[in-house]
Design brief:
Strand order of the largest sheet: 8-2-1-10-9-11
CATH superfamily of the largest domain: SPOUT methyltransferase, trefoil knot domain
Radius of gyration: 31 Å
Number of helices: 8
CATH class of the largest domain: Alpha Beta
Largest sheet: 6 strands, parallel
Distance between the termini: 83 Å
Protein name: 28S rRNA (uridine-N(3))-methyltransferase
Subcellular location: Cytoplasm
CATH topology of the largest domain: Alpha/beta knot
Main location: cytoplasm
Order of helices and strands: HEHEHHEEEEEHEHEEHEH
Shape: flat
InterPro entries: Alpha/beta_knot_MTases, NA-bd_OB-fold, Put_MeTrfase-C9orf114-like, tRNA_m1G_MTases_N
CATH architecture of the largest domain: 3-Layer(aba) Sandwich
Catalytic activity: uridine in 28S rRNA + S-adenosyl-L-methionine = N(3)-methyluridine in 28S rRNA + S-adenosyl-L-homocysteine + H(+)
Strand content: 15-25%
Number of strands: 11
Length: about 350
């Protein structure tokens, strides 16, 4: 009987230890799983922060400029079509976040870029007309009356499709930034009042002469308290700040070049363009290219007769092969089914082909 009791005690003790071991194993497994999940979450968080950092670095690291001749407007058959063509180009520029557009003169008869012209006709300077329409479209609607008085070049502006860029805001659209114009009103304590297209004017910290377009960074405010305030407050920042700091595309700038060579030599960037591309059906197939690192990319499109005519029109350039002027001479649409690709088509095709290659630039 004693042996049976001892055996029973040993079995109970054995079962007791086996239950404890199973419990310990489950706990260890649970703790291991929780630790793995914590590591995974930590890694994901770090990866997200790193991606945001890289995105911010990429955004602030490079710019893209597009250059094309104003003569492409002369190929349109009527003033209305010339205006609409300029609008098509503008739409393509903002869709692909272009920072600068350069309109260059490829005519052998040099024209002045100053003074008044007869409007969108073949007798007017197509370069100036083109640039004026591009500037008009880029400007937010509520500011156009300040910077674009009635002009013959804009006679058919009603035909243009709106760009609807991030800085083209409605009155109550929330945004940390706004485009505005300084007003001719005295400010107590210094500074300036700005019309930023909102229900209230914005008081900025700098004294600026009236009728100047500025980019304003707004101080935080509560929508419900706007009506109670006399004005909102903010500070004047560079037009590049929204893109560099918050990845918000803020439109393009327009530059007129009196010659083909001026496209390269009059760059607004201190170090110039460190990567240049010319487009032609005789160029290297773009699909097979990898973009090198760059800070400022320039893509140049030719007119009706290609970049060869642009080279011939500039007496200061002595190269016989236009492709030698560029780091890359590219063909963005090989095996094309039409004998010619119009410039407005080439802009869309080339920028579409380049787009998937841009994120690889670090």
């Amino acid at each position: 009987m004693a042996d049976v009791n001892k055996k029973s005690d040993r079995e109970k003790k054995k079962r007791k230890f086996s239950f404890k071991e199973k419990y310990d194993r489950k706990q260890k497994k649970k703790q291991k799983k929780e630790a793995e999940q914590l590591v995974t979450l930590t890694n994901e968080l770090l990866a997200t922060q790193e991606d945001e950092k890289n995105l911010k670095e990429k955004v602030s690291k490079y710019t893209i400029s597009v250059a094309l001749p104003g003569s492409i407007l002369e190929n349109a058959q009527s003033p209305e079509l010339r205006t609409y063509l300029a609008g098509q180009i503008a739409r393509a520029l903002v869709i692909f976040n272009i920072d600068e557009v350069v309109i260059f003169n490829e005519s052998t008869q040099k024209k002045s870029n100053d003074g008044l012209f007869k409007g969108v006709t073949k007798a007017s300077d197509a370069n100036v007309v083109f640039a004026r329409i591009l500037q008009y479209l880029e400007c937010p609607q509520y500011l156009r009356k300040y910077f674009f008085p009635v002009h013959q070049d804009l006679k058919y502006a009603g035909l243009l499709n709106p760009l609807d860029c991030p800085h083209h805001m409605r009155m109550d659209d929330p945004s940390p930034y706004r485009e505005g114009v300084t007003l001719n009103r005295p400010v107590k304590g210094g500074g300036s009042y700005v019309n930023a297209g909102m229900r209230k004017e914005v008081k900025v910290d700098k004294l600026i002469k009236p009728d100047v377009r500025v980019t304003v960074k707004l101080d935080p405010y509560d929508d419900e308290d706007v009506e109670k305030k006399k004005y909102l407050t903010g500070s004047v920042v560079s037009p590049t700040t929204p893109k560099e700091s918050d990845n918000i595309y803020w439109g393009y700038s327009v530059r007129l070049a009196n010659s083909f060579s001026a496209v390269f030599t009059e760059s607004p960037y201190k170090s110039g363009y460190d990567l240049t591309m010319g487009t032609s059906e005789r160029g290297e197939v773009l699909d097979q290219m990898d973009l090198p690192n760059f800070n400022h990319l320039l893509i140049v499109f030719g007119g009706l007769k290609g970049l060869e005519l642009s080279l011939e029109s500039d007496e200061t350039l002595h190269e016989s092969d236009v492709g030698l002027l560029f780091d890359h001479y590219i063909n963005s649409c090989p095996d094309q089914g039409s004998r010619t690709i119009r410039t407005e088509e080439a802009v869309l095709i080339t920028l579409s082909a380049l787009r998937p290659k841009l994120p690889n630039v670090t």
